[in-house]
Amino acid sequence: MTNYGPRIACCYISHELAQKSETTMKPLRKRYITIKDIAKQLGISVSTVSRALRDTYDVSQETRDKVLAKAEELNYRPNFNATGLVQNSTRKIGVLIPSITNYYFSTVITGIQEKAQEGGFTIVLYITNDDPEIESKMLRELTLSSLDGLLVCITSKTQSPDCFLELLQEGLPIVFFDRIMNIEGTSKVMQDDQTGAFRAVEHLVNQGYTRIAHITGPEGLLLTQNRLIGYKNALEHYNLPFNQDWIIHSGFSRKHGTEDMTKLLLQKDIPDAVFAVCDPKAIGALMALREKGIKAGNEIGIIGFTNDPMGEVISPALTTIAEPAYEIGRQSCELLLRHIRKNNFAGEEVILPCHLIERQSTTRQQIT
Description:
Helices cover 40% and strands 15% of the residues.
């Protein structure tokens, strides 16, 4: 049974406690179940229902159980606007992310937290483990946390906007960052994926590589699509061949990078360079080359996209496109605070630049 009682505030909520991306979607209006509906069906007063949902001392367990059962049956969800008027803001911001151990996300969180604290807000983390089912479950239960707003980086497999649309309809401000759901009226903050990907391939070309593959993310993700566009644009600009067999879609982990690189090495026509959608995949690709006794840089160049600190300590050090993770965190939080403070604040799209960091994994003449 869903628990609508009081909850202890915390900084981290794990999944264990618990887009189409190119399509612009508009929230739809719907009629919400209220505590008046629950009271009417149970034949009790509205105030009794309200106290039962808040688990106050003066409501019997029997009455509370009946109220909670009816609330679940009717799919009752508290209204954010009404809650905000009564509580005069909770001063809490939710942050929904796929992972906390990833360098990129931990840096984004740092930016978010600093900006939130400057504005007098605290953050509550919701970690989805990059699982769309966990994400949906968390979003369905999110209203119980009485947040003032929500920052979201969707999972790599999120497809439906429905949960986000429901929260928006209830008046909860949402700002997407990095992996976005393109819903009209919401703000988005991203790095310049297309230009960053173009610069990655351009760097490989300048180093003398001509057969360039791309190990990338899930096909439906906007981030994946934009980096693939940048990759293709660079090949076309420099009159290099495009080989569909050199495009491999999978996840974002080091293991995925190793598997993707292994697939490329098994092909009849092997590329002489690889652009990876993120640094973990690039590091996985380097590991696959090491297993095969292939020298990264001299024989096959590898470039990533993130600027994960691991890229500096591996050998050879990883060339990468650095993302402005900290600034993405700060600016996404700043936009959310504007939405919170101004009901009619129009959604904005912020795209931040990336830059190249050149290291040994794309250097032809290495000292061995």
